[in-house]
Amino acid sequence: EAAERRLTVYVDLQLKATDGRVVWSGNSIAANETYPVDPLKQQTEKNKSEAFDALSRRLAEVINNRMTSDF
Description:
alpha+beta, elongated
């Protein structure tokens, strides 16, 4: 069995003005994070949750950097 697994997330985003026009978009923005597999399923789920938290923070940083560099 694998000693680790990988979470991968791809997102397509649009930032719209109140009138509905798109002021920024980002396509296929991706991030991934590996986490260890433990013999105890509960520990593996905890590791997965922590990996998802780290992935989410990194993805938010990537999105913020792309948005602010485009303006």
